[in-house]
Amino acid sequence: MSTDTPSVLIVEDEPDLANLYAAWLEDDCDVETAYDGNEALDAIDGAIDVVLLDRRMPGLSGDTVLETIREQSLECRVAMVTAVEPDFDIVELGFDDYLVKPVSRDELVDIIDQLLLRATHDEQLQEFFALASKKALLDDQKTESERQSSQEYAELEDRMAVLRVQVNDTMQELLEQNSYRELCQDITRESVFQE
Predict the structure, then answer these.
(1) What is the pTM of this model?
(2) pLDDT at 148
(3) Handedness of CA 4, 9, 10, 16 (dihedral sign)
(4) C-alpha–C-alpha distance, residues 128 and 97, integer Å
(5) DSSP run (H or E) holding 102
(6) Which of the chain's termini has less CB crowding within 10 Å, N or C?
(7) pLDDT in tens, 51-92
(8) Do residues 8 and 31 touch, judged by C-beta distance below 8 A?
């Protein structure tokens, strides 16, 4: 994910609607538009952070575009923005979020912010667990005096401490958003009851 202005691809077969979304987002994002599934696949690359994807389009459907994005392991987040009411078939789809049209400017901005925040959290967690794995290996293989005299080990512990704070801060920010607070409370309750 880029750390500066997020790059957003709007995939919408109604050009007026795609252009409206683009106008809403252009002050905060680098915006590209694609008016069908083939254009979308041509436009998607590693530089795209978020895809706002219509589900029902002539030719390649949004579902097919989404499946291709996931098969290619592209790092972008995908929000379906569609008039298709969700049904149980969404369980198998690899999107990150789902908005039912009509949507407002605020809803689009909020969903992009949420997806970018979740991506940041994912990256922080991945780095934290990679470092934790290295620390566990060194803890197992090196004596305490060897670890205490190692500059690299001290830097590893420092980086883990910083990441722990960042992960907690990002999680707190996610929890402050109502839908995520409810979801995380449900997860917490379920895990408590399963223990």
Answers:
(1) 0.72
(2) 93
(3) positive
(4) 25
(5) none
(6) C
(7) 999 988 988 899 999 999 989 888 899 999 988 887 787 777
(8) yes
